[in-house]
Amino acid sequence: MNSAKIFAFVMAGGSGERFWPMSRQSTPKHLLRLLDDRTLLETTVRRLEGLVSLENTFILTNAAQLESTKAAVPFLAEKNIIAEPAKRDTAPACALATAIARALDPDSVCIVLPADAMIHDTAKFRSCLSDAVDIAYRTGTVATLGIPPAFPATGYGYLETAEPLPQGPQGSSIHTLRRFVEKPEVDKAREYIAAGNFLWNSGIFVWRASAFLDEARRQLPPLADFIESMRSLDDLPSHLATRFASLPKISVDYAIMENAKSIATVLANFDWDDVGAWTALPAHIPPDADGNCKRGPVVHHASRDNIAVSNGRLIALCGVENLVVVETPDAILVCDKA
Predict the structure, then answer these.
(1) What is the largest CA-CA distance in the chain?
(2) Which residue in 143, 160, 164, 167 sits closest to 199, CA to CA?
(3) pTM (predicted TM-score)
(4) 20 to 30 Å CA-CA from 26: which of 62, 157, 168, 190?
(5) How many C-beta atoms lie closer than 10 Å to residue 232's C-beta?
(6) By C-alpha distance, which of 255, 250, 181 is closest to 217?
(7) Domain positions in the chain
(8) Which mean pLDDT values do the consecutive 10-residue runs of the chain (338 residues) have?
């Protein structure tokens, strides 16, 4: 399809709690340089290049993080960074994304994705996402990207797949989706792993603007009314100011996905990590011979299996094991990895 019709919307909110003391209300996880010299947000935007133009890439954030977000992606036009005036969960954010894309091109396809996942194999990611765009555009189905589960995680939602569909043009495996499953207890998660047809829900969705609008009309009319009443981007400021805060506060999974008429899942063949806690860092920053994962000025003696992150001052570890130590100018965290 014509790449000019593809629009990407990066959801970049968050409360800044998981990576305290580096993360704060104005600088949540995706605005941190946790793993290298780029923020997770910039890495997410750059990962889309080649499939979605920067002109068609938007970031949906909030007022408290607007200036920090602009600073993290100075190569994006300011008009492409949009601050939601109230926290209304992901369904209103998806309606906002759809309204913007539809106003720019009624025949558009929307990619909606979180700002804070880490994916190293960019080429495979783009191939899978391209196949999701293809099936969404051709068939009008809603497409998701499902992650093969590595362990019985209780912090992720799951996707139960059903019948296989023809492979995508890039060779991706695609299945129809039987159901969305909320975050399970560990015993249930083990059952899902054993069943072999469950995937982690990556939170990456692709749909034609017209298909999402049809689902919103059927399932949650206030979202549809919000989308349809925004006829051009000139309407965006007043829409945000007067209408967004009154939209139902609900996730897109509950509002749309669980009862959508047609959903397909593209099986992700790339690495994926939502980098949910300090203990995720060793998967991306290789530990030394003693198992210590270090970023910034860190030295150690007779210490093993620690995670130490310095933002300026020297951290010295002596005779300790299994700690997380994080230094910032105004706060220091020391805790057990468990």
Answers:
(1) 65
(2) 160
(3) 0.94
(4) 157
(5) 8
(6) 255
(7) 3-267, 278-336
(8) 92 86 91 91 96 97 92 96 94 97 97 96 97 97 96 93 96 96 93 96 97 97 96 92 95 93 96 93 96 97 98 97 97 97
